[in-house]
Specification:
There is one protein chain. It contains 3 helices and 9 strands, in the order βββαββββββαα. With about 170 residues, the chain is mostly beta strands. The strands form 2 sheets. Strands 3, 4, 5, 6, 7, 8 and 9 form a 7-stranded mixed beta sheet that branches. The chain has a two-stranded antiparallel ribbon with strand order 1-2. β6 and β7 form a beta hairpin.
Length: about 170
């Protein structure tokens, strides 16, 4: 039945919390939040990406997952990706968290498939990941330590010296 739709279907997860006074608070991740420009006129970050220039998803990784899965299995899984962005993603770059705190490898994507029963995906690579950078975190910079996936442009990553330039 979904084959009839000519547009991607997005799932927005809305979480509802109730405090002791009976008041509700709702939490959700804004649609394509990485493409929302900032109003900060003194921003040191380059131009904001538009969805058409995106071809890469950057994922944070702990050391064991990075070695075992990313380098060992040539894939990465349990990634949240907006459904409308799946067709744009051609590469996956990895950002090992502290103490490395830099984008260090990139891999070409062979396929993106649903992961188990949730709204996450597994990304399989065509070949072994290739070294890039390192594209380091700038202490006190505009871009903070990556804790979630972020969309990027491979061309922009290749020319970036640090995360502020990459995003």
């Amino acid at each position: 039945m979904l084959e009839k739709f000519k547009f991607p279907i997005e799932i927005l997860t809305l979480e509802r919390y109730k405090n002791d006074d009976g008041k509700f608070c709702y939490v959700f991740e804004p649609f394509l939040k990485d493409f929302i420009p900032t109003n900060n006129s003194d921003s040191k970050i380059g131009t904001v990406l538009d969805s058409e220039s995106v071809d890469t998803i950057v994922v944070p990784a702990q050391e064991d997952g990075f070695r075992e899965t990313f380098l060992g299995e040539n894939r990465w899984y349990q990634i949240r990706i907006n459904a409308s962005m799946i067709s744009h993603i051609k590469y996956l770059a990895v950002y090992p968290i502290a103490p490395v705190s830099a984008i260090t490898y990139v891999a070409e994507v062979a396929s993106i498939e649903p992961w188990q029963d949730g709204n996450k995906y597994v990304v399989n690579f065509t070949n072994a990941p290739q070294k890039i950078g390192p594209i380091k975190l700038v202490q006190g910079g505009k871009v903070k330590q990556l804790q979630n996936s972020r969309y990027a442009s491979l061309d922009r990553l290749k020319n970036a010296k640090n995360l502020d330039e990459a995003f």
